Amino acid sequence: MKSEIDLPKTFLVVIALGELGGEADVEAIAIKAHELFPQVFSWKTRPDLPDKDVVRAHLSEAKKKKFGQLVADADQRKGKGVKRYALTATGAAKVSQLSSVVDRYGVGGSNRTENFRRIIDPILNSQAFIEFTGGAAMSDIGRDRYLEALRMFPDAGAYLISSRLARARNAAQAMPESRDKQGVIQFLGEGRDEFGL
Question: Residues 151, 122: contact at Cβ < 8 Å?
Fold first, then answer.
């Protein structure tokens, strides 16, 4: 996977707007752009946060003739007076043409979506997972360290545990095919079965 995306940011914003169905406000577009291309649309000091100002600037660029007038203001203001943007017919065609970018980069411009950073990364970096992939039996790892890998306290309630396991399984299923994906899925399943969660 490439570490940098070789398209203008304006086109990436248009892709994000297309992923939202072709019409949205700047906040929704910024969140989607950050989700798809976090290395491009985040604060320098807080890469976990989307940079709405950069997205707004590129939405303005996408309205210009030099980019093919890919975006227009939506039918005035809807709801609570929030300005909305919409793809033009040319913009929708451009999104179709650029859809291979999202496919090529997997889940966004990086596999490090918010769910990946919040749920999968802690599992991958946990001592329990490292030992599990090194061949340790789940019974040797223990329930407490298994839950710790899921960022949970040992005394967490059954509902919270099952909810976190479901979110972790969904996040793991969304990962690109890899040894890590299979390892996380196996780790989650064996721990659930071993400890009756």
Answer: yes
Q: Is the CB of residue 81 less than 8 Å from the CB of residue 94?
A: no
Per-residue pLDDT reduced to its tens digit, 3-26? 445 678 888 899 989 888 888 889
Strand partners, 42: 50
Q: State how far the Cα of 154 lies from the Cα of 144, in Å rounded to an integer.
A: 5
Position 182 scores a pLDDT of 86
Around Cβ 176, how many Cβ atoms within 10 Å?
A: 11
* pLDDT tens per residue, range 59-71: 999 999 888 899 9
Please say whether the dihedral angle defined by the alpha carbons of residues 166, 176, 36 and 47, taken in this order, is positive or negative. Answer: positive
User: Does the predicted TM-score (pTM) go above 0.85?
Assistant: no
Residues facing residue 23 across a β-bridge = 86
What SS3 state is found at 97? helix
List the beta bridge partners of residue 84: 25
Q: Are strands 23-25 and 82-87 parallel, antiparallel or unpaired?
A: antiparallel
Residue corresponding to tokens 């650029």: 98
CA dihedral 146, 152, 156, 157 (to 10 degrees): -90
